[in-house]
């Protein structure tokens, strides 16, 4: 294991050490294509440097393996998030996370947990989709109080547009792969969001709760004055 | 010009005479790929049989040519509809035609004029899209009184879902090619409509106001008891 | 479990109570992304309110779990439909459900069972596809007697066009994912149906028998005068 | 202009001389991307060798230029076909060319003229599409007498399937770019034809009347025993 | 089981009895979406009528079940073809079946077995793809002697074009789903074949060896004079 | 012209008056599908209410017509932006607008002018794309000082990822339709941006400089504390 | 006009000066989205630095404007290439440029002229496509003598595979947008080339003759030992 | 087993023997669609001829079967490469293989092992993607010393562009299917690479490490003067 002040060289990976300094936040680990052994090496290396670390798209089996070697690791199964926190971050401001339906909750949890890990207070509003729009209207005044809103929706994905048409803060829309037939695993929701006639909304990749949470936190903390 | 009781043989076309009897309504003429001469032949043939005829996607130049030969022909430029009415149809019931924006009006007019030609009363509600949703809510109680609702929208195309989530009659959604970039000439709106989580809505081809108007009329007249 | 007169708050879901009043029919539950526990909570909550409930895309294992807790639940495996009926609806009018082939029957059953649940009489005409068109012609006079026709077809999906060209009531076409190669899991059939040159037909999402059945019932009941 | 017994070298093109011997028929010229000067060179070179030549997708302006230099050249504007015939071919057998609508006629004419140029008798059946299917049934017994049938259709493109389901000879289906919205310039018709559940039909490229005519002639002449 | 002279009514299927008379060949059964019980009913019904029957895309497990009930059934595992022959057909003429690679053989076998079942002599030429084109050239003179050639290829799918450029009979091209990445499960090969600059070739659906074999047999028998 | 406190009813349009109050900013007008007369009506109506108004995707001819009727209207041809300012907004904070190439400048100008109209200070960094990455590195320290960064790029669209990998504030990426071949009018750049492995970046529709500018301004002003 | 040793700052563009040193070759200018004035500024700036410059996708009108201001500029209309050469480069090695048809020549010329500009000897082999494959075989021994081969083809785009299967040097394949229907403006040819079963071939963007010529020259010069 | 000097006839395959002579390198075997028995036949046949052989996309189970019959066979599980080396090749020159992330390593290994098998020295640079671009910059001077660079990347796939913008040798870019959502199994990365504004880079099929390694070796050996 070679090592310099900028990154840790593991051969199969080069862990970014100066990211906290350069970008304000530590590196996140995409667990989907990594072996158990690789994850242990990565989490151990960060731990040694006393750096907080978050792993996304981790499965239960990866967690169990890791837990044996690193008992401090935590796991949220719904959001598939691994965390190892050496230094607690102060949560500030407010991010609202909304979903169109029940099936969108895992992606929403990935977003919410990420925003919390990086230092935001989060409020959740689930199953407020447009087929029964009074459910959304009941909550909209509360939702609008956030600094940033995350709108998570599959199928036709219109939730974000409705919220953006009523809110005065930025909305980050996350299409999900929930649906069937011509939903094309989230493409329909993605296109809906990109073509929204309600301005003040931007979009991330299908099912990418992590980037939504990261971005919302980034904006929320700047607004809260603690970048 | 050969001729039998079922259709008129023009060589380049075979005009369906028994359609009124078989389907309840006369044949419509798709003008886009036809020459001026062909249109004159077709409209004259129907006129001779005393059959009402409607032409869709007709341009102004086609109308002017036709008007010289057949002074009874009428034209609506916005909806690009030609009509030649020998026998007036009684308009019954009510069809509501709504658009998301101003750019969707030509397709909406095609739908509205078609429904009127075949025998429906029509009410128009334009620019009630979701970016300023209070405009729609102001009108929704009135819209819901119709027997069938046509929702015409481009861009993200969410109008139909919102209306279907509030109405108790069937909604026919028409995606339009209005938009740019990832709207892909109406594909985004089409997918939104097909994936709607609000049941009670069906969809027609992009920009196909004619079929929406035809179908809405068909349903409306059955409800009104005058199929 | 918070509760108000408009919906039941379950945290992961908000059950629409005023839908019957607003839209004429109770809410349906999309079971595919729900856990067994969530389904029990949802069905129990509706039962307590004495509201009929229908669940779509339910698998056998979900049914077995639910049946233990709620013995009144019924299941149709072919159509993957769960129902819990507290108050019987009177079936009226007539909806015809046709399929192109044998493989389309599950989607057709979803449509037929849905229409029956919400209050329509249904007649089934299976395997009347166009490769042996005399099979369809044998039945067409009977099919045409319905108030609404549902045409379910995969592969090239031309069934709906043929029927719409001969019937005088509205046709709702359902593309199915039956086929291979360039059928692209139903996209080919979907495009055929959207581009039909036979007017008087509208389309729902690939494999969406539920929406077809819901919509057909909605129209059928209006025609029968019992909306 | 270099020259050998296998091809004529024009620098920008190498004209295939041994094709008649190798494949039974002379080379055809795709005119769309060629300049007037190039066409003159090509047609003159073939003429000098006393070889019949056919040019496809030629526009009127190309014809007029060519006619000045080579007065024997003939042009069919609808089918956009140029021919220069030095040695008349005997027409044999029978090819039937059918279209769904009036807008498909140019592609059908390209097919018919090609088949005639290479040596087939051709019968034309235009506007026999499925929205008024009795028009097709009136003609089907006559159509079935051909050795090969060409079915040309845009929009949903179901014509070929219907015919193939009733005929006992091979059907070559040609999708056309006629249509709008989700017809995607012929893709919808192409997919319909590829996914046909009626066997005994094969497909050529969108708007490729030439290949359909060439192939039908090839098969027809083999059946007639004069390959 | 209702029954008339045109088809056998099984409820879930309507077996086409007059097809032999109408189209010259008996109906084929697409086994992929059928249950074991349905296949037994179908094969038994045809057997009772003394009609030959072929089943495509059948798996080994379907065969084993069927074999117990109908011991006369035969199965070819590579081509996934079930046959039950009551009356032997005389094989005539010649169809050549070629593949680009080894992976294309199952589709080629489906084509070859189908052509043989319906009455053609077949010769097989496997692994003659274009990456080592001398292997094709070694065989081309022999291949060209057939009445029809079937070219089966995945990946880039250029085999058909090369053969069509050298042969004087019709080529039916079958794209296969062999390949990866941008082959998009056969779409790349399909597009190659549709866009071939070598005329005299038509295309069937991806992996549709059955239709290729059926069509080739149809043409071959007409050429042999025994339609 | 009907009128209420929430919107102005023009028949073809319903102008949103309460948007400033509801969302913090006045409505913007999408000029592309509007006639000259409609634009005059709309701009006059807003002017009467003393509300600032911005029109996007306006062409020169529309501007000239409008200028005659409303001499206070301003136009930026590169960004295709019309403005009519009744009440000057104080510009605050800082938004950085970067482009990959020279061809991306019109979209970047749309973004920059929009952000300025709604109240942000803007700095422009043009032609800092990745093929000569030292040009970007020269400017990156200055760019990073902004509260929000807009990255505008066509072709492969990698600019946003590079910047997001180095900056600690949010990046809004705008794909442009600049490019050819497999750029598919901006789809390639759009996909690149959606799939970025650099978190902290969100995406808007192809060529949608307006939404990028609007969103950046929204975030920038919140950070500056003057929402 | 600001200026440093690494690039020239023109505001709308930053001209890369150190590219020759960094990459071995001067920057190329993509003319399609640039105004006449911008091109004059750019070419003048390079000329002042005595740096050779090449402009791609330039139209005749741009050339004429430029020629007035900078009489040393040269233009090749077929390849749409502008050059201004201050210091002649020695041409070395050999690059072979082949086309499938006559319509592919403009892209081939773009490739050939680019390779020559940057320092390669080029031989051209046009119209050697696979529909008359003996034309290619006549030339293949000569073609194989090159250090790199560029294969330019539209429609089905199989030329590159055939050549790569016979040559022992690298082949760079360029799909062109020549074709119609399902060629999808070059996508069919692109997919063919990407899926080639003949290894030793790589692909560039549709119609991107420039990159093919640049890359071939780069490899050719390295082989010739004069990088 | 028939046999001639050009290829070995195995019935299901024709093994190319003259490839070494014709193309400079022996044939490679695509193992994915082959049975264990076929692989044994193929490897044995080559071994008998004393020809080196490489198998790609082989799974562990295929290796284990083969190893029993042919103990000299070697296997690399990560790269899924089987080799049987009868005559060692001298490794020359230098090829650099880089990856964007850890998930891209299997494809990179396929490339590296292929290049080594055919005779190149290879250096590996893994996890140097653009989200932490200083990791790449640390290595770039070393990377640039190679004769050819292979850039392997999934997700947005921008790695190749960045390297090509800094290197003076040719870059072969390999998109991988790593990613999710709108990465469309590698399509996003493929498009990024095709549209790169950095010239001097060409692209191979998604996940096609083999062709990248083969092509890089071909070029590298020519540069090293040992083709």
Summarize this entry quickly:
Eight copies of one chain form a homooctamer. By secondary structure, chain A is α/β, with parallel strands linked by helices. Chain A folds into two domains: 2-84, no CATH class; 92-223, 3-Layer(aba) Sandwich (Rossmann fold).
Walk me through this protein's architecture:
Eight copies of one chain form a homooctamer. Chain A is built from eight helices and twelve strands. Chain A has 227 residues and is an alpha/beta fold. Chain A folds into two domains: 2-84, no CATH class; 92-223, 3-Layer(aba) Sandwich (Rossmann fold), CATH 3.40.50.1970. Chain A has a five-stranded parallel beta sheet. A four-stranded mixed beta sheet of chain A has the order 4-5-7-6, with helices on both faces. Chain A has a three-stranded antiparallel beta sheet with strand order 1-2-3, with helices on one face. In chain A, a hairpin with a 4-residue loop joins strand 2 (7-9) and strand 3. The model of chain A has no long low-confidence stretch (mean pLDDT 93).
Question: What are the main properties of this structure?
Answer:
homooctamer, 227 residues, Rossmann fold, 22% strand
């Amino acid at each position: 294991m070679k090592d310099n002040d900028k990154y840790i060289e593991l051969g199969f990976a080069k862990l970014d050490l100066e990211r906290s300094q350069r970008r304000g936040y530590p590196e996140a680990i995409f667990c989907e294509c990594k072996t158990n052994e690789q994850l242990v090496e990565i989490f151990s290396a960060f731990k040694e440097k006393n750096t907080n670390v978050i792993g996304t798209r981790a499965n239960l089996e990866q967690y169990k393996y890791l837990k044996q070697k690193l008992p401090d690791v935590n796991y949220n199964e719904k959001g598939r998030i691994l965390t190892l926190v050496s230094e607690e971050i102060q949560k500030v401001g407010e991010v609202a996370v909304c979903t169109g339906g029940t099936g969108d909750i895992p992606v929403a949890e990935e977003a919410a947990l990420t925003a919390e890990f990086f230092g935001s207070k989060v409020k959740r509003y689930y199953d407020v989709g447009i087929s029964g729009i009074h459910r959304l209207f009941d909550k909209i005044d509360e939702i609008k109080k956030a600094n940033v809103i995350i709108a998570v929706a599959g199928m036709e994905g219109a939730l974000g547009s409705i919220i953006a048409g009523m809110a005065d803060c930025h909305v980050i829309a996350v299409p999900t792969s929930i649906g069937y037939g011509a939903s094309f695993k989230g493409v329909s929701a993605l296109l809906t969001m990109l073509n929204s006639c309600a301005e003040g909304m931007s979009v991330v990749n299908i099912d990418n709760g992590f980037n939504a949470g990261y971005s919302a936190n980034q904006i929320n903390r700047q607004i809260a004055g603690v970048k």
